[in-house]
Write a structure and sequence with these properties.
alpha+beta, 352 residues, disordered C terminus, single chain, 22% strand, disordered N terminus, globular, 11 helices, 15 strands, 6-stranded mixed beta sheet
């Protein structure tokens, strides 16, 4: 009997935990907002809005980082009224998340003209003055944001860009209409539903056991090296993409590979970065760099990479000639991939 009671109590505790789980509750609340226009409109009444202008987020400088201010619906309506604008522009907002207390978060671009808005875009300078902030390109500000704001603004920019680029049906040519949350667009003439999509990209740190391969593209900031990266082709598995990219770009053949982690990346047009480690055989490490894809590629020892990782601001030191190269900032998954290789030189591989 006591054994039965013990099992019953454990089951009761498990189900109570499931019912009270903050993550589950928040996830289901967001699902409701995405699917129920009425619930989403209600959430806007008590929600918070992040503002953009032509895909650049509104930010305020605070010491050594940027902060992303939030605005209530009432504050936005007052602001729009001040500039003689119709609050109909609020229909262009998109849902980007919520707090544990179920305060919904939205993003709104005041500089993009959409098919659902009758408003002309608001002037950037006027808005910056009124809001006491600056609309700054996310590419410039991303690494000076805290983790929460960086994630939310990346999601927001990706959604806003997608809606701006998909206002017409590819089949009928007719204007599409977004739902309140922005989780989809529908063509009224044929009921085709369009969902925001991301492009899968593999980013791979190649090693020969004692060294790792770092590369740079001409588009990188001066002196920065990173891991190899490339888009997945249609029909490819992740493993096939890793092998193909490494063969194409540096002429190496992968011996073993394993998955590390993933990250949403808003550039250039919303990608899912899938991070992997790959090893090549020690005797097959001669590089044949594809100069159409890369500017340079080189092997670096664990000590060399560890030294650069320890520096607080390697980009400044590189420009002064103190170090030969620098690495992506901590927020980028490439940085985490490189750090993982330095700290954990041996990892259990998954089947390649």
């Amino acid at each position: 009997m006591s054994l039965y009671c013990g099992i019953a109590c454990r089951r009761k505790f498990f189900w109570c935990y499931r019912l009270l789980s903050t993550y589950v509750t928040k996830t289901r609340y967001l699902f409701e907002l995405k699917e129920d226009d009425g619930a989403c409109k209600k959430a806007q009444q008590t929600g918070a809005f992040y503002l953009f202008h032509n895909l650049a987020p509104l930010l305020q400088k605070s010491e050594h980082q940027y902060l992303a201010p939030q605005y209530s619906l009432l504050e936005l309506e007052r602001l729009l009224g001040k500039f003689g604008q119709d609050s109909k522009i609020l229909e262009d907002s998109v849902l980007i998340g919520c707090s544990e207390q179920q305060e919904a978060w939205f993003a709104l671009d005041l500089g993009l003209n959409s098919s659902s808005s009758i408003n002309a875009s608001l002037q950037k300078a006027e808005m910056e003055t009124a809001l006491q902030g600056s609309f700054i390109k996310l590419t410039k500000a991303l690494f000076e944001l805290n983790v929460k704001d960086a994630s939310l603004l990346s999601t927001a920019q990706a959604l806003l860009r997608w809606h701006d680029a998909h206002q017409f049906c590819s089949r009928s040519g007719q204007p599409t209409k977004k739902n309140v949350s922005g989780s989809k667009r529908v063509c009224p003439s044929n009921n085709i539903i369009y969902y925001p999509q991301v492009a899968p990209v593999v980013i791979t740190l190649v090693s020969d056991g004692t060294r790792c391969l770092l590369v740079r593209q001409s588009s990188f900031p001066k002196g920065m090296y990173s891991a190899l990266a490339g888009f997945c082709d249609i029909g490819e598995s992740l493993e096939e993409t890793v092998r193909r990219e490494i063969a194409e770009e540096v002429g190496l053949e992968v011996d073993r590979l394993h998955y590390s982690a993933s990250q949403h990346w808003p550039f250039p047009n919303s990608t899912l970065m899938i991070a992997c480690h790959a090893t090549v055989k020690p005797g097959q490490t001669e590089l044949q760099v594809n100069l159409r894809e890369l500017e340079a590629a080189a092997w670096f020892s664990r000590d060399e990479v560890a030294t650069v990782l320890r520096r607080n601001n390697p980009s400044n030191q590189q420009q002064s000639g103190a170090v030969p190269f620098w690495l992506p900032p901590k927020l980028a998954i490439a940085h985490q991939l490189i750090k993982e290789w330095v700290e954990k030189p041996t990892c259990s591989p998954l089947p390649a």
